[in-house]
Write a structure and sequence with these properties.
- The protein has 478 residues and is α/β, with parallel strands linked by helices.
- It folds into three domains: 126 residues, Rossmann fold (3-Layer(aba) Sandwich); 117 residues, Serine Threonine Protein Phosphatase 5, Tetratricopeptide repeat (Alpha Horseshoe); 179 residues, DNA Cyclobutane Dipyrimidine Photolyase, subunit A, domain 3 (Orthogonal Bundle), CATH 1.10.579.
- It is 47% helix and 6% strand.
- The protein has 20 helices and five strands.
- A five-stranded parallel beta sheet has the order 3-2-1-4-5, with helices on both faces.
- α2 links the parallel β2 and β3.
- α15 runs antiparallel to α16.
- The protein is globular.
- It starts with a strand and ends with a helix.
């Protein structure tokens, strides 16, 4: 029997700059391209509904990309170790290659799989295919993990970034005997209730879609990124985050494209690369502080006096808080699987500060509804907003939704797009409709409490309650 190699695809659903696939090509053996569907192994952070939608389409596209290289994609469900062992026995597999992941549960699983396969005489090689630098490769001057972004960014930016690797047609050999494969549809990744119609209009979840988004950004937006990235009513961001999360494009490819465009040291390009570094920082934190997915990095927040309220949480989830910029963001999230980053901060701040809901509730909602739901970035972002994480915003920094809306959505274009019942209001009232005279509301066809809710909480009351909670937490820790 001819020896074979396995490339185990996970969050690297691409053929370009894929170190594991490149290594398999170099070994010269027939290659089995494998994807295992084992969501139970990632609990409690198995992919949410929006992520499953993207995964379905990403796997469909990967099948086509591999087919162009002469390889079929083998899909199996069940425990990953058992699947790998079964294929190893059926096809005399001597080498297994994969690109590493850094979520706590996955690290534990992969370490066990690597040990078991090596004990059976299989050559297992793993690679970094999703980060510029692995979390353990960067440390501060004392050899400890970074907990502040600025020195992390300065250190990372001073390091060289490895060039992407490529695999060309003809380098890979398929098995002479095709392994059994389940169908993509059998995984049941798409929703049974068609809530994803807006996703199809907004996204092209493929490597080609990633490349198009990158080229569009580099050609037209990167130089003004620093000036326009905070305005949700315009197309000022890259929208590459879901492609990065599912590995349909690598951070090295993005970094190289910005460099080749001559924008790496410009204001916009430099700022954009620092945002790529924020993603790296998130993985750095998750790797070194794995408990932070559920508990605060800052231990003084372990007993923070949250006030869980199912009604408030549901109103926030549904975009019915009565604060237009918050509601627009939550409705954009539901309809497209994505939310502008500035609005993510506003909406998250409103939940944890105005409404005093635990940040974990917000993190889990984002996890289920974002197509770019990334455990490291999601965890860091929510802890930053709650004031309990690394380099976090001070808890007393409480976003004012009206001022944020007026500053970053001055003409109301974003609110009007996602809260159309307010579209007729003039700009002066679009972010605070409760301040509009009755005649203005009537002219705009708006009846507060009927067409659009009144504020779920008064801004000043919410702010004062949040500050009181902070004071109480500090006093309890004194």
């Amino acid at each position: 029997m001819t020896a074979h190699a396995i490339v185990w695809f996970r969050r690297d659903l691409r053929v370009s700059d894929n170190p594991a696939l490149a290594a398999a090509a170099e070994c010269g053996l027939p290659v089995i391209a494998l994807f295992t569907h084992a969501p139970h192994e990632e609990k409690p952070w198995a992919p949410g509904g929006a992520s499953r939608w993207w995964l379905h389409h990403a796997l469909s596209e990967l099948e086509g990309c591999l087919r162009d290289l002469g390889l079929p994609l083998v899909i199996r469900t069940g425990a990953s170790l058992e699947t790998l062992q079964t294929l190893t026995a059926e096809h005399e597999v001597t080498h297994v290659f994969w690109n590493r992941r850094y979520e706590p549960a996955v690290i534990e699983r992969d370490s066990h799989i690597k040990t078991m396969l090596r004990e059976q005489g299989v050559n297992v090689r793993t690679f970094n295919g999703s980060l510029l630098y692995e979390p353990h490769e960067l440390s501060n001057k004392t050899g400890q993990p970074f907990r502040v972004f600025t020195p992390f960014w300065k250190h990372l930016y001073s390091q060289p970034v490895r060039a992407p690797v490529q695999v060309s047609t003809g380098q890979l050999r398929a098995p002479s005997s095709q392994p059994r494969s389940e169908t993509l549809d059998s995984l049941g990744l798409l929703p049974s209730i068609r809530w994803d119609s807006g996703f199809n209009d907004h996204w092209n979840p493929s490597p080609a879609g990633a490349r198009e988004a990158l080229n569009r950004f580099v050609d037209h937006r990167v130089t003004v990124y620093g000036k326009k990235r905070d305005f949700p009513g315009i197309s000022g961001t890259s929208q590459l985050s879901p492609y990065l999360h599912f590995g349909q494009i690598s951070p090295r490819e993005i970094w190289r494209a910005v460099e080749l465009a001559g924008a790496a040291e410009s204001g916009g390009g430099f700022k954009f690369l620092s945002e790529i570094a924020w993603r790296e920082f998130a993985y750095h934190l998750l790797y070194h502080f794995p408990h932070t997915t559920d508990t605060a990095l800052n231990e003084t927040f372990s007993e923070f006096p949250w006030e869980p309220n199912a009604h408030h949480l549901a109103a926030w989830q549904q975009g019915s808080t009565g604060y237009p910029i918050v509601d627009a963001g939550m409705r954009q999230l539901w309809s497209t699987g994505w939310m502008h980053n500035r609005v993510r901060m506003i909406a998250a701040s409103f939940l944890v500060k105005h409404l005093l809901q635990p940040w974990q509730e917000g993190a889990r909602w984002f996890w289920d509804t974002l197509v770019d739901a990334d455990l490291a970035s999601n965890t860091m972002g929510w802890q930053w907003t709650a004031g309990c994480g690394a380099d976090a915003a001070p808890y007393f920094r409480i976003f004012n939704p009206m001022l944020q809306g007026a500053k970053f959505d001055t003409d109301g274009a974003y609110v009007r797009a996602y809260v159309p019942e307010l579209a007729g209001l003039p700009n002066a009232y679009i972010h605070q409709p409760w301040e509009a005279p009755e005649s203005v509301l009537k002219s705009a066809g708006v009846s507060l409490g009927r067409d659009y809710p009144r504020p779920i909480i008064d801004h000043r009351a919410g702010r004062e309650r949040a500050l009181a909670a902070l004071a109480a937490n500090k006093a309890a820790r004194a």
